[in-house]
């Protein structure tokens, strides 16, 4: 980080708060009990800026072979591995990986390696690895497909329940969003005793909107260079919750996760692969020979708080993914971090944030 | 209209402009050549505030039995008549009606009557009427199902290519949106020589956002009364274009139409039926014995301007639906018109609109 | 019935048995506890041969507002009313009606009347009536839309748990299938302590196959006359079960129900609306304010017997719908009953049925 | 092949003909102009019986980046790579590979290697490889994932327009279907001047039916051993045609391809991944910067012959996949070839085939 480069800060650390609902302890995906996140970051500047992010539900193991999961494909210009079985069975049976487009299949193969080697999988002969991706080909030499099995295993093995790193890390190392450097972001909300956690890999086009205020990328002195790239790459969103939702309900949650992209200014370009996966950690179903623990059902009439929590947490995770990212000089261009002072100035001018009192740091 | 009631005004008449794309002549659905709109409004205050809106593509007739059409169901808590055949054949074969939930089936039956009596339909023995609906049960006695065949036929027969009436008219007579009186709204955009027109029936929950600025319903002196109604009723969106898109592409357009609801503050509640239909007027296919005129295809790579036009036109149509609606005292409560002066004051305070110079009318 | 006309007989009464699984008591839809079936038959020969069939789940009432339901659209050239909400909520909230295409909307409206007048629905202001249809326009003057509210209410009110009438009755009065007179058919299977009941409205094209043996329509002396009608009209299939399946699983069941049409020779013509609805009667969810009874879940690994039961019961219901139908002289042609003796002769020739011993009745 | 083992023979070589439509020259997938098929077969008995089958459309190249494609997921218990983008864009942009479940991701990665190295792809930074799979884990050590990049490239490079090898070859080397040794099968039909070609990888459960006559697996002296494997693995079906269909229409074709599995006795088990992809070779669209050649449209009313051709060709391809396969002793059991003489005997007994005259070979 150069002297004049800003320190990554989360939205709330800058005073930017989305919605009125309380967050979990870390304001992160990992606030959902039993889910962990790990990253492997690959940087060999300026040519390579890529990586892997692993989302690991602890409940998957010898006694529990699947978790309820819903999927929404907002725009299917993407290569999500595992989609049709998730839709059919309403379940995931592996951790979820995020990575770069052309490396998604290597990552899926490595995920198979990982699960086959896990306890209880000695006799497993079918498996549905789930791997999402976005295209980091502007900042990274995506054709090189640098993701190796070791990178995937490291992300899986290193997953923790701490606040995940955000910004230029893991699968977000080389992404660009809304004309700025994008990356990994996370947030959470607590409603009705349940936690909803979101994690995003932001890499899509449009004009950044922060709490209603546009922050055009060209307002920056040294803006992101496009290298003739088409706008619109993708956004992968993962939602986890300990609310005992079934797959159909989780599909409804996943839809709202994509809808929330509009709040930060996505233009939903045709070349963007916009996907959301939403899974639930409690009880049923166990798609194995051991019966799942019957779970209390949530009535569809009671889902609105979960929907609201999801949309707020996705919006904030997307903001976090940009605000924590740092300017990156890459393979085919440069992506500028969104300037915190610009954002704050505009939000203050719009009355969204109060004018700083004496003694408040500038950003 | 009482003395102190505001005059309905469209967003642009108040200086509120969505996006940079040019509009069509009327800034309306009917800017798309060959589509007409008609309304039948039923008011017997305070008990009945309901009606029918008819969207009539001229191209449907003896020589052309269908138009390409795509459908997106953002949230299927609704009763859209005709959905599965639209999805299968990628086509509509009748005008599209909008009305009140419990009257949708009477309206569909009347639409059958209308088409069977049309020239060229003497031997027609199958037909897929398309009827959308939202629930106007707060302001109208929806259980009475007051829509009769004559109301439907009047809307169809009265359809014109003029600027459609907006606000408390037709299927929007009794709707409530974002805590204010909703209704019918329309807007259009012109991109690449094509026109994209939108028409909405707004009736959904959330907090109104105008160009990024929240306008909470409780900021009003005499707010909308809820009568214990659940939030979230529905939003029907219809998009028409003369761009020669096929059904799959129109489905992509329809998705963006629903996504745009986020821009005005929809909370995408679980009880809201959020649907978009998008149809295309040129050439192919004729699903009859007469071959359709081969149409120039639009490459998917070239759809982004159409997507952008759709989202801007839906956003503005939704704003128009509220700004042109008037306070309505209904069957089970009152819905307040959104106060123009409040909106303008807030947009000026946020710097979205300039401060009025001397001589500018207050609203 | 003329002197030389055959008596309607069910497949099993002719010795034709599909599969090895046991049937329920009546070998009928109504073997599923808590479901009833009623018919209204409208005949004014030769012009009108139509009607309504009502499927009434007793569980729907003041305490239980919905039952889990899945839908599969094998070919969406049909007008199924209520489809999108069934898909969204995975539930039905009304009885299911079957009728003639152009009368489906009148029937839906009448179903709304019926439910609004039911105990506990005094305050109901939204409702998703579910009405399936096939096109009986060859034998009945479908443009006349003769179904009135009274016909629908009679079918609903007359529903019983007895063995439903089959053949030329209710919604099957005027249907034609596989070149013969079609109609209503029903069958059931018992697996793992659960009952699977099916009811079909057969009206589709192809070449009849009975247990693998083709029975071409032109093998008959006085075959069905086509009146220039396009082949392929539709098939509506309803499956009920007391297995506690959720909506996703019921969607899987519904898919198999349509797949089973291949066994009797459906050609899955493009103009045929081939739909299956599958619902489950136990416990959850109650989509109202009263929580649903938590139900034991069925693991997806345990569904294969249910799938097998469904396919066998649909196949047999389809055969029953033809074997119990009688030759009908209608509005635009005649539909010949499939001759039992021809079927038996061919099945014996193929070795599917044993040669009749002395004393066995010819058919 | 041991002395007493039967020679692989295609259905027609045994006198078994499906339907009345004419076949193409080879009665094979490759009868569609511009499509080639290649296999890499991996056998290291008894442990490994697996491979790769490549379907290569010549039209894909520098001037044409995509072909219209439809997908139907009959039962999504499978890992089809590339599904969501095929659905979104209605197109394939790579050859299609078939292989073994756990090797699908390695194969997809190798397919990326292949395409990136192709002329015109020097700047390609996104790609949607399409790889289908079924599970050959009974006869092959699937956990070993023996498919290497070289195997995939060999299948692609070796693809020809000749009659493809069938039976125990390529992706069909280790599959088991309907209680017998399955494999690769192919067939074609010519309708209305268009060719419809099918290629299947058969690996699913049920009871074999040949032209209506059941051939139970336990009628064989040395039947297939199950090794405790669950029934039901999968079936991948690929359909190609030179009819100028769009993606929606090809989706309708794909549905019929899966429906046709019922004709040979599939039980559509829940653990079976039953997928069909259907693509069209003419003209539009080119999803690149070069506009696609406008193609004559086919009206949906004219699709029935294509549907019939598809269903007949899938049925015959499935029969060919079994009749050309040979008994295989594998990793966890043995799969018996379906005995031709048994099939012929039963078909003659049922009157489906004539009794052999003197001089006709026994099988």
What does this structure look like?
Chain A has 363 residues and is an alpha+beta fold. The first copy, chain A, has six helices and 16 strands. Chain A has one domain: L-amino peptidase D-ALA esterase/amidase (4-Layer Sandwich). The longest helix of chain A is centred in the C-terminal third of the chain and has 20 residues, at 304-323. The two termini of chain A are 17 Å apart. The model of chain A is unreliable at 285-294 (pLDDT under 50). At the A-C interface, helix 4 of A face helix 4 of C.
Concise structural overview:
4 copies of one chain form a homotetramer. Chain A has helices at residues 83-89, 104-116, 149-157, 247-259, 304-323, 340-349; strands spanning 35-44, 48-57, 67-76, 91-92, 96-100, 130-134, 176-177, 180-181, 184-191, 194-203, 208-210, 213-215, 234-241, 273-280, 328-330, 333-335.
């Amino acid at each position: 980080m150069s002297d004049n480069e800003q320190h990554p800060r989360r939205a709330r650390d800058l005073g930017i708060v989305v919605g009125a609902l309380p967050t979990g302890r870390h304001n992160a995906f990992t606030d959902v009990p039993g889910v962990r996140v790990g990253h492997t970051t690959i940087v060999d500047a300026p040519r390579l800026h890529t990586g892997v992010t692993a989302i690991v539900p602890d409940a998957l193991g010898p006694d529990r072979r699947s978790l309820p999961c819903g999927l929404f494909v907002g725009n299917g210009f993407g290569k999500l591995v595992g989609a049709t079985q998730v839709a059919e069975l309403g379940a995931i049976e592996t951790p979820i990986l995020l990575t770069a487009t052309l490396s998604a299949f290597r990552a899926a193969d490595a995920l198979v390696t990982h699960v086959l080697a896990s306890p209880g999988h000695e006799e497993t002969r079918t498996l549905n690895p789930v791997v999402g991706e976005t295209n980091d080909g502007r900042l990274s030499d995506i054709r090189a497909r640098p993701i190796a099995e070791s990178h995937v295993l490291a992300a899986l093995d290193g997953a923790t329940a701490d606040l995940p790193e955000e910004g230029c890390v893991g699968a977000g190392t080389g992404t660009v969003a809304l004309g700025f450097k994008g990356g990994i972001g996370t947030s959470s909300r607590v409603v009705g005793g349940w936690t909803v956690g979101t994690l995003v890999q932001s890499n899509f086009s449009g004009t950044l909107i922060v709490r209603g205020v546009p922050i055009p990328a060209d307002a920056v002195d040294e803006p992101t260079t496009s290298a003739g790239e088409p706008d619109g790459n993708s956004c992968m969103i993962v939602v986890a919750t300990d609310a005992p939702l079934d797959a159909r309900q989780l599909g409804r949650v996943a839809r709202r996760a994509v809808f929330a992209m509009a709040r930060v200014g996505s233009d939903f370009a045709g070349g963007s692969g916009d996907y959301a996966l939403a899974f639930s950690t409690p009880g049923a179903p166990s798609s194995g020979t051991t019966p799942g623990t019957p779970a209390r059902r949530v009535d569809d009439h009671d889902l609105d708080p979960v929907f609201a929590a999801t949309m707020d947490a996705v919006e904030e995770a997307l903001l976090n993914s940009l605000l924590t990212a740092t300017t990156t000089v890459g393979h085919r261009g440069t992506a500028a971090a969104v300037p915190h002072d610009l954002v704050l100035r505009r939000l203050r001018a719009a009355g969204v944030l109060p004018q700083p009192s004496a003694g408040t740091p500038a950003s």
